[in-house]
Write a structure and sequence with these properties.
Number of domains: 1
Radius of gyration: 28 Å
Helix content: 25-40%
Order of helices and strands: HHHHEHEEHEEEEEEH
Amino acid sequence: MKEPVMMFSPRCCTSRSKRLGFTLIELLVVIAIIAILIGLLVPAVQKVREAANRSTCANNLKQMGTALHNCNGTYGYMPRHGWPWPKSSTTLTNVSVFWAILPFLEQDNLYKNLQGKSTSSAYYNGVATPASVPNYVCPSDYSGVTSTGMDPSGAQFNLASYAENGVVFVPFYPALRSTFTDGTSNTVLIGELMALCPLEAGGNSATAGRMVWPAVNLTTGDPIAYWIGEDTTNAPPGLAPGTFATQYPTAKSGGFFKVPQVAPSTGASGTCNPLTFNAGHAVVQVVLGDASVRQITSSISVTTWNAALTPQGNEVLGSDWEQ
C-alpha cells in the first residue's frame, strides 16, 4: 500500500517568505518613530547637561565666597582690588581679589609663584605664564574661553567667567564686621560674567571686554564689573564719581548700573556688556557677603539691583530681591 503524498501549496510558502521582511511603509514608520524619540531625547539631555553646568558654576561661586570668608577670618579683612596684599605688603603690592584668595582655593603653589613680583598682572598673558584655576571657569560660558581658562587666540590670556563687584572691592578693604552695614545677605560680592564679552581683543571696555582674573588695570582686562563712578549724575551712595564716567558713558541706564544680562549674544555685534554681570544660563548667579549663592533674573528692578551692589548704602531692597 502506497503512502499518501503530501502536497505543499506554493501560495503558503510564498506568503510565509513575505512575512520575514518589512515593507517600505513599515520601514518609514519605524524611522519616523526613531526620529521622534531622538527629538524628544536630545532636549532632555541638553537640559540635564545645562543643569549640571549651572550647578558647577554655583559651586564655583560658593567656593569663592567661602574663600573670602576664610580670608577675612585669617586677616580680619578681605582683599582690595589692585592694592597691596596683605595691607602694607612690600612683596605683593598690586593684586586682584582673585589672586589674593588663591591659597583658600587650594592654589597655594600658584599664589607663591608671585612672591618677589609686584603685581598679579604678571600673569595676565598666558603665553609666558599659564595659570589654570578650575574654580574660575564656568562650563556654560560660551564666549570662547577654554575649559582650562585660556583664550583661544594667540595671546591666550588667563580668563575667568566671573567678575568682582567693583562697588565692594575697589574703594576699600572690605571687612565682614564693619563694611556690610546693609547686611551680608543683601550685598553682592562676585558674579558670573562672560570671559570674552563681546570681543576677543583689547582690554575691558564697552567695545572690547576680556575678563583676566590676575589683571589689575583696564588695559589688561580687569575682572571687575560695576566700577564706581561709571555715572557722574548718580553714583552709589557714599561713593564719589570718578574718571570712568567719561570712559564708559553708557555703562548705566538712567543713572544706575544696568541689571544682569541673561544669555547675551557674543562677538563683534553681540549684546554682551562687559560692564555688567551676565551668563549663559536662564539666570545669572552671584555669591553674596554671607557666602550664599543667589540666582538673579533680568527682570529684577534696577533700583533693587543697585541696592544689592552697595555694602553700606542704607537702602531697603525691594520685594523682588526675595523672589
